[in-house]
Amino acid sequence: MLLVEEADYNLLGRDLIVALGINLIVRNSQIMVSIYKLTREDEDKINPKVWHTGKEAGKLVMEPISIEIERPEDPIRIRQYPIPLEGRRGLKPIIEDLIRKGILEPLKKPDGSYRLVQDLREVNKRTRSRYPVVPNPYTLLSKVPPQHQWFSVVDLKDAFWACPLAKESRDIFAFEWEDPKTGRKQQLRSTKLPQGFTESPNLFGQALEKILQAFSTPPRIQIIQYVDDLLLSGEDEVEVREATIKLLNFLGEKGLRVSKGKLQFVEPEVKYPGHLISKGSRRLSPERIAGILSLPPPPSKREIRKLLGLLGYCRLRIERYTQTVKFLYEKLTEGHNKKWTKEDDDKLEKLKLKLASIPALSLPSLEKPFHLYVNVEKGVAHGVLVQEWGGVKRPVAYLSKMLDPVSHGWPVCIQAIAATAILLEESRNLTFGGKLIVCTPHAVRNELNQKDEKWLTDSRILKYEAILIDSDDLTLEVLLTTEAAIRTKERRWIHASKIKGPVDEPKEWTITSEPGDTKLTLKRGLGGNELGRPKWSKKHTQDHT
């Protein structure tokens, strides 16, 4: 076989490679081989009706779904957009295929006249939304045990069309179709849950979740659902293979169809959803990163919101995310005459560079304690959630949140209370009640015990106490940052970069940005073992290294 990177096709040996289902991936001047592992022996164990063939649509045996809209007595009257002849010719076989499969059906009034056309976007605006149960993609992958090393991904084909619509709800999705050959106009309506409907992911997700409750998941196998994509994981390759085959047969019996070409069958690394998942690690797929990096500067506020939506998908992976994208939020609050500047271009390029160098994050383990390092700077709470693996602390997520406007006027030591509480609540979505050790450069619990009513209202004190004091699984530690220096009565100035991990609380110690600057001195209280209230000192040290 001959491989030429610059060539569109590598002809020598290509037919055999395709026949064997082998993918060759060139990465960092190295060739990676990916082999389609669904063997003939495996296929013989799978009911063939689960595969999507294009001849028929899936069909779930379930109660038809009813859709409620606001002001049903007021019809949604939207004129049908004109479709050119060439476009109608291309759509004709698709429309006919959907009618043949029963996904669409002709619609007429009892008197034979046609109904008014309805725009699906207008239907979305008028639909009474149900409580969303679609999993949060930011925290979904945290449920994958880090010791799992074999994965399968099952992609359900045209899953929404497997859910029947109640007859009284079908008229909501009516539209007009003109046959390009005969010129005959006809009203069609959907009999199944339509694609593009804002409630479809939520409604199908609930239906699939209910169906999966009847599936007997093997003890050492984890199944995660995100809308119509299923991820199976386990430690043993054979167990994952058997569980995947069992799940495919179960889905086929329930009336769902699976895309055979998109099936990722028992792989050490899989893509799900938009992430590359492997043992103990998850990272954004190169395609998703490349898509964001290729975006041009947003010309309007609408495009800025789209960009923020894409970046928000990566927020757990971007250190100091809130501070980094702050300029984009500021552009949204500016007047209409404000234009995109060269300075904005530079900030966007720096943001893209951060995206290009995003590290792989560790999958959280509930069997190990979490460490949350928190700091506050310019009214923004920054933090990193880590766990120790092999003696090295690996990041699980980068967290950042803007403090509310009221807390911007507080002293930094009081802001640290709010920052710690905010990021602690954020981290709960990833720790799932596991033991958490919070490390900050401030004695936040001691500050909170002072009940400083000058800055904190009673409601805030109660809120922060519930989060920071009344948590049995929480440990608070004072940690020196790498920018600080420490002095005690027993030692001279020592830069914090030489100090590893939390330090024991001394009788007296001082934090300063640099030796010689204004210092923050903390002393033990006279009546107890806790550190007293921090006091600012204007003294300059002369004794330092």
UniProtKB/TrEMBL annotation:
Gene3D superfamilies: 2.30.30.850, 3.10.20.370, 3.30.70.270, HIV Type 1 Reverse Transcriptase, subunit A, domain 1
Protein name (record): ribonuclease H
Organism expressing this protein natively: Hirundo rustica rustica
InterPro entries attached to this UniProt entry: DNA/RNA_pol_sf, Rev_trsase/Diguanyl_cyclase, RT_dom, RT_RNaseH_2, Viral_Replic_Matur_Polypro
PANTHER family given in the database record: POL PROTEIN, RIBONUCLEASE H
GO molecular-function terms, A-Z: RNA-DNA hybrid ribonuclease activity
PROSITE patterns on file: RT_POL
Family classification: Belongs to the beta type-B retroviral polymerase family. HERV class-II K(HML-2) pol subfamily.
Domain Reverse transcriptase: 88-277
